[in-house]
Design a protein that fits this description.
five-stranded mixed β-sheet, BirA Bifunctional Protein, domain 2, homodimer
Chain lengths: 454, 454
């Protein structure tokens, strides 16, 4: 087999990169669990008709076929596809297990998803998502729309100590947008949202044209939509500015008022709990997703051009079985996109590429068992250890440790002499007892720390 | 959408089951890392021709197709399939990254794999495997064949405290089998192994017939093979019994001698490090897998009919790029099969289904922010907390905690009175300060404990 090459769009990390990724996942998991979210894992596949239920062809589903399948048994409507997000499978899981869950049900889910899109910078065909959602049976109070983005911001902010840039959560409310558009006389709300969603890509002039051509807006209405989209800010002043704008265009709408009240609550609560993190941004549209209240996007400060690394919002109908409707609110982090950037930009690194803190040297193959015993004694006290591959000259064993990034080498004492341990970085070598010696706390496990870019 | 039903072969757990599974994964990961194995994660897909390289059609690969793919671009030899194990992707990863890895390279890998086989008890189409392997560049000393099954046995034994039955690791050595068969005059070693592999399923009479029909054995040779397969035991007596058998059938073989010496070393080391766990069993054949030295299977004591939950062995050629050959040795735990049994047999359970230790009650919606502040203060000290969904009557809030399995409910003091916290299991309610109160250690997080079957 010739040396294989990577597959575009299917990222993999070297062991050091995986330590960074695992740390990110561990920190997210811990924060989610501290907030009472239960871990759920769903199968990777869903029936194809369920994946396409909302017409999500833009997400390019991968369809599965059994290589040995009987062709006569194919295409019976039981075709399976790989999930392209964790929301569709979670909605199905809630319906399937509703009788066993207590609502409002809080869950986190960290899994790979697959999209057959053309790979490009920051867009992968296989990537890890980390989602949190709260779902109610029949109803779900608004305060969860305040809580969820704050939990996610807290989880991402907990990564700042290892060198992850601060995050800024951009929030909007569909009710504000819809109420304003309808109040202006624009009834094709979807077409307006679709146009506004392109603002960052094509700029206001082109969006104005789109609004006229595709949403049936007059030049004046288009200007109003663009003025709304231009409003952003970290405090309640934003709400006042929207009210002023509405007054100026003679827009009056209960939906707009309701949305502004909700947006104001979110901004006020965020200013108390995570000052400076949440910003209202009235141009956030979230394209065609079926949100009905708050919507969220999250950027890394200083890396805004990477786009949103964490998005979500409120669905009035996350799932429904006819008898009961399940509203939900949640956010999803694109972990692979985040980790890829952290590694490629040198923002975060691991202090070593192996778990091992100590390599126990082997004096000769006949005494390997003694080295194994020292290793077991150290491991019993929670120190990660491996034993040298061969009883080579000690210089060679030290070079092996160095190549693997292992900081300490342990030498067995000859004929009753005590053991010794060498810090191969400083060269310092001291007498040591396997029943008592401790590595410095900073060396016990590989740590994740700010990288060279800092 | 009507209530969906589970897909056969694609297991999913309720949150309580997922806590058990996560605990199993955490314990395996910790043991592997204590032994210096680095975590690696590979993409879920491999080129189809690589998946079929060893003719593994019995593992029934799932092939992928992009729903939106241009038909003209299909079947260009770049068809992808889901991996059916973690060995094929790891071999490819080693070749692809050889220049960045220090050999012998120790890695663990915990991921889902997919096989399109007919689902049946304990066999899934999607399941989690947890693998450890050591791979050398050019050569790999025998002592790793002793180390690896002991690491895995230690990892699985670490689960006994939560109610997992003890494991028994059954070991054999391909060199013993091959040396003995060739010494007998049977040169189609694969055919013999294939027949012996069926012993547990069809019994010795049928295997004797298979040996005659498919491996070209005489009745006498078939008897000899069955006598070898009948040998098992926990100590070196096994080696002597094989030597006696070989002498009786006039078999003399350097390969047999080498295999017996290796098997003896493994048995001796295991008796010192994990007494009573490793048993030599000369019928272990591992079917058509391409092992060249030690082979391993692992059964749960008392659940032997479940089959092997952890298997592996030595490959002289795990991978090769023409210039360098990479020998390896490793084992793979079928985590889903294990967890499925632990849950269905009531061997293991979680003390609750949610991470949450404390539900902070809400007195009225206007004071929700005070409840949020108490929750934040408790979380800051590592206590998992959620806030009540609504300012309902306290009785209703307590019932909500009870339904979710949350042991404590926190009440805010009215008008300067101190807060109080109630253990809803005992009914005991005490004055508490959010800056200092600690739950009992056993209640802080859900624990995994022996289930009702114990």
């Amino acid at each position: 087999m010739a040396r294989p090459t990577p597959l575009s769009g299917f990222p993999e990390w070297l062991p050091e990169g995986r330590i960074v990724e695992q740390h990110v996942l561990d920190v997210l998991r811990r924060t989610f669990e501290l907030h009472g979210f239960a871990g759920v894992e769903t199968r990777a596949v869903e029936p194809l008709d369920q994946l396409l239920r909302k017409g999500e062809t833009s997400k390019e589903v991968y369809v599965l076929r059994r290589l040995q399948a009987d062709p006569q048994q194919e295409d019976r409507g039981d075709t399976l596809g790989l999930h392209f997000d964790l929301t569709v499978p979670f909605a199905r899981y809630v319906l399937e297990n509703a009788g066993h869950l207590a609502f409002p049900f809080r869950r986190y889910q960290i899994q790979k998803v697959w999209r057959g899109e053309r790979p490009q910078d920051g867009r992968f065909r296989e990537f890890i998502q980390a989602d949190i959602d709260v779902v109610g049976a029949g109803s779900l109070p608004y305060h969860y729309e305040v809580e969820l983005p704050l939990v996610m911001a807290e989880a991402l902010s907990a990564l700042q100590e290892v060198g992850v840039p601060p995050v800024r959560v951009l929030v909007n409310n569909r009710k504000v947008a819809e109420g304003f558009y309808r109040g202006l006389g624009l009834d094709d709300v979807e077409a307006v949202l679709r146009s506004i969603d392109k603002l960052d890509k094509v700029g206001p002039e082109v969006v104005a044209e789109l609004l006229v051509e595709e949403a049936g807006a007059s030049a004046d209405q288009a200007t109003a939509c663009l003025e709304l989209a231009a409003i952003s800010g970290p405090d309640e002043g934003v709400v006042d500015r929207v009210r002023d704008l509405a007054k100026r265009y003679d827009v009056s709408s209960d939906l707009l008022d309701e949305g502004l009240e909700e947006l104001g609550m979110l901004i006020r609560a965020a200013a108390v709990r995570l000052p400076g993190t949440v910003v209202a941004d009235l141009k956030i549209a979230r394209g065609l997703d079926y949100y009905t209240g708050s919507v969220y996007e999250t950027v890394l400060v200083g890396h805004e051009h990477l786009g949103s690394i964490c998005s979500g919002g409120r669905y009035d109908t996350l799932a429904s079985d006819g008898a009961t409707t399940y509203p939900g609110v949640g956010l999803s982090v694109g972990v692979s996109r985040l980790v890829s950037r952290l590694l490629s930009a040198g923002l975060v690194r691991a202090t070593r590429a192996v778990p091992t803190a100590v390599l126990v040297a082997v004096t000769d193959e006949d005494s390997r068992q003694r080295s194994d015993e020292v290793a077991a004694a150290l491991r019993n006290r929670g120190i990660p250890v491996e034993v040298a591959p061969a009883a080579a000259k000690f210089g060679k064993q030290i070079r092996h440790a160095d190549r693997r990034g292992i900081p300490f080498v342990w030498f067995l004492g000859a004929e009753g002499a005590p053991d010794e341990v060498k810090d191969i970085r400083s060269g310092e070598q001291v007498v040591a007892d396997a029943a008592a010696w401790e590595p410095p706390a900073a060396d016990r496990w590989p740590r994740v720390v700010p990288g060279d870019a800092h």
